[in-house]
Prior knowledge:
The chain has a single domain (9-92), classed as GIY-YIG endonuclease (3-Layer(aba) Sandwich), CATH 3.40.1440. By secondary structure, the chain is an alpha+beta fold. A 4-stranded mixed sheet has the order 2-1-3-4. The chain is built from 4 helices and 4 strands, in the order ββααβααβ. The chain is globular and about 35 Å long.
Amino acid sequence: xxxxxxxxxxxxxxxxPSGHRFYTGISxxxxxxxxxxxxxxxxxxxxxxxxxxVYLEGFDDYTDARKRELQLKAQKPGQGFFRLAxxxxxxxxxxxxxxxxxxxxxxxxxxxSS
Length: 114
């Protein structure tokens, strides 16, 4: 949990259908952060809008979230990234199973810290 807000941290992965790219980050509010990326606030992500949130994993501790973020980034764009995140490259980055897409949001994958 954040010492300041008391909220958990989330590692998130965004997919850009137009740029065929992934973006991985950490946020206490991943939906708000996705909105910021789609509004063009970040120079790098502004080039590849729109972004879709395709992976979300919760952590109680920033250190654990950062380790997971770096683990995912180290694998990208290889098959290890897709395996670790449970994403299917043939489906444009959508999760392999268990997500109908009706909510417009990915499932919360897991909370791996205690």
